[in-house]
Design goal:
By secondary structure, this protein is an alpha+beta fold. Helix content is 60%, strand content 7%. The longest helix is centred in the middle third of the chain and has 27 residues.
Length: 599
């Protein structure tokens, strides 16, 4: 029923070429269905916007309708309109079926309902909200939850997203008239309401963004414009923090396009880094641009504070960490083909090590967590079968990397996959809820986030050093001079040095899950598409160094064959000895005691 409502709403929006028209079409439906339908529309629109890659509103809604109807979304964007035209027309249901059914049910069962409320055990919720202190204007100074303004939410969500999309179109068209593009974000009331300082920095940001778009239109070297855009966004973030408002703006130029990305600050945490306070921000993505960092945390020149990516950690926990708790589950250490062949024994050994660390950390929740893991593995295997089946028919499935399967996915697969398998996935979802999966996933999320926070705090500490830490010799042996012939920093050397310091500090300072921290680094050396990155070079130095500290064998050969014997030694090491080895390695590499990071 809800699918029909949303498809009809999308049809209204497509006819008007206006997302608001689609939302308005749901204002007149059954009151009980209205909220559910709005949420469903919002979710399919977000997914469609990512797939549509900056296309006009009507195109995005056509993609959303195709995916919701279970039809194939053409890879060629020019064929989307034709594919949508082939869908059967859907009229908006007008009979308030849910309301009538609810009234009849309540009249017939009011007595029984009272008994159920009093006597019957309730199912668990599919959501969990971690208890946090009330929002405070002092959060950026003292830690806690900052303030949030609905008007700022709206500005940094829809309007900022549209600004970047329209600017990208202007860049491709190579036209110089940006007045129309910038007009919707010029002097917004949501910004002016928080004072003159914020309004001035916002005005500078909008102007600098326009200059960056012009630079992208012209092409050539744009490093200077990139730096100015980062600084302008950073200034706005600082003024928002001064006002106590929990938002971060990041500006950058990437791939010849100017971007502004917005994050909502969910929590401010103050870490003590070598005894000095270091502010870190836990954030979730606010805009809906189809670009994202594939990292759990981030510290860059465009950010005043290191950030921890809540959304990315949610996905990482659901897809990579919880499944390892299943009996005999391997750790996803490298490429799938290697993990099931040459790396099979090592992946299994690492899985046992990480599993033991997690079970100890979870305590009384460990048995339920292991049941949740087994269910997630079973569900993943079923969905992988569906994905393979659909691929043979040139159909694609939406991402399934969260704790729950996306709303509407099972309905969309009706007739495409075996009915009994769909019923099994529905049963798994119910079992996950009964096992309190959202709360337990939140516990594991906090373990990971706390560890990542130490990593990012170290990045911030290193960036503020008066003089750079020593260039470790093992890294120099692999990468050579830190500067090119013109005296400019070599990017890969700078990246590797930063990641080596941060990961080694993370392992040394993690009192609960140092193995999870280490193996998250090590997988960069065992996964082909990560070879050549700063994280890979850091993984080599840390793996060889830890094995040396632990009395492991001398490394021989190259690549994964060189590291695997060393990794087996590390996998056998208790957590406390791993931390001690990381601290000793830090002193060996840097000639100074390890950086300390504590809450």
């Amino acid at each position: 029923m809800l699918t029909r409502h949303v498809l009809a709403a999308l049809a209204a929006g497509i006819a008007a070429n206006d997302e608001d028209a689609a939302r308005a079409a749901l204002d007149r439906i059954d009151p009980l269905a209205r909220g559910l339908a709005r949420r469903k529309l919002g979710r399919v629109m977000i997914d469609a916007a990512l797939v549509a890659d900056g296309k006009p509103a009507a195109h995005v809604m056509q993609v959303a309708a195709l995916s919701l109807a279970g039809a194939s979304v053409p890879v060629d964007a020019d064929r989307v309109a034709a594919a949508y035209a082939e869908l059967p027309r859907v009229r908006m249901p007008r009979t308030p079926v849910l309301t009538i059914a609810a009234l009849l049910a309540s009249l017939a069962l009011v007595g029984a309902a009272v008994a159920v409320v009093l006597m019957w055990p309730h199912g668990k919720s599919r959501t969990y909200v971690r208890p946090l202190p009330p929002p405070s204007a002092d959060a950026f100074a003292k830690g806690g939850v900052p303030l949030h303004d609905p008007a700022l939410d709206a500005l940094l969500d829809k309007k900022l997203t549209q600004l970047v999309i329209d600017a990208g179109a202007a860049t491709e068209a190579r036209h110089d008239d940006l007045a129309t593009v910038l007009a919707p974000v010029k002097a917004p009331a949501a910004i002016a309401a928080h004072g003159a300082a914020l309004a001035k920095s916002w005005d500078t940001l909008v102007s600098t963004f326009g200059d960056a778009v012009h630079a992208c239109e012209r092409g050539g070297r744009i490093d200077h414009d990139d730096m100015l855009l980062r600084e302008a966004a950073r200034d706005v973030s600082a003024e928002l923090a001064n006002a106590g408002e929990g938002y971060v703006i990041e500006g950058r130029i990437k791939g010849g396009y100017a971007y502004l990305q917005a994050y909502r600050v969910d929590e401010v945490v103050i870490e003590q880094t070598n005894g000095a306070p270091r502010r870190t921000l836990s954030v979730s993505r606010l805009d809906h641009l189809n670009t994202a960092y594939a990292v759990l945390g981030l510290h860059s020149e465009g950010l005043a504070d290191p950030i921890v990516m809540e959304d990315r950690i949610d996905d990482f926990v659901a897809t990579d960490i919880i499944p390892v708790l299943a009996k005999d589950a391997p750790y996803p250490l490298g490429d799938h083909a290697w993990t099931i062949s040459d790396g099979k024994a090592l992946a299994a050994q690492v899985g046992a090590t990480v599993r033991g660390e997690l079970i100890a950390a979870l305590g009384v929740d460990a048995p339920a967590a292991q049941q949740i893991a087994a269910l997630l593995v079973e569900r993943r295997d079923l969905i992988d079968q569906w994905r393979d089946t659909l691929a043979r028919h040139h159909l694609r499935m939406i991402a399934t990397d969260e704790l729950w399967v996306p709303d509407g996915m099972l309905d969309a697969l009706d007739g495409q996959v075996p009915h009994y398998q769909r019923e099994r996935v529905e049963a798994i979802e119910d079992q996950l809820a009964n096992l309190d999966a959202p709360r337990i996933a939140s516990r594991i999320h906090q373990l990971v986030a706390t560890s990542v926070r130490r990593h990012e705090a170290t990045h911030g500490f290193d960036a503020d050093r008066d003089t750079e830490a020593r260039y470790p010799q093992p890294l120099a042996d692999m990468l050579g001079s830190p500067h090119d012939e013109q005296g400019n920093p070599v990017p890969i050397v700078r990246a590797a040095r930063a990641e080596l310091s941060a990961y080694l500090s993370q392992i040394a300072n993690d009192p609960v899950t140092p193995h999870i921290a280490y193996w998250h680094l090590a997988r960069n050396a065992f996964t082909e598409d990560q070879w050549g990155t700063g994280e890979m070079f850091a993984a080599y130095v840390v793996t060889e160094g830890l094995a040396r500290q632990l009395g492991g064998p001398e490394p021989h050969g190259r690549g994964r064959e060189r590291l695997a014997p060393l990794a087996r030694v590390i996998a056998k090491t208790p957590s406390d000895k791993l931390r001690a080895a990381a601290k000793a390695l830090w002193t060996e590499l840097y000639g100074e005691p390890a950086v300390t990071v504590t809450p």
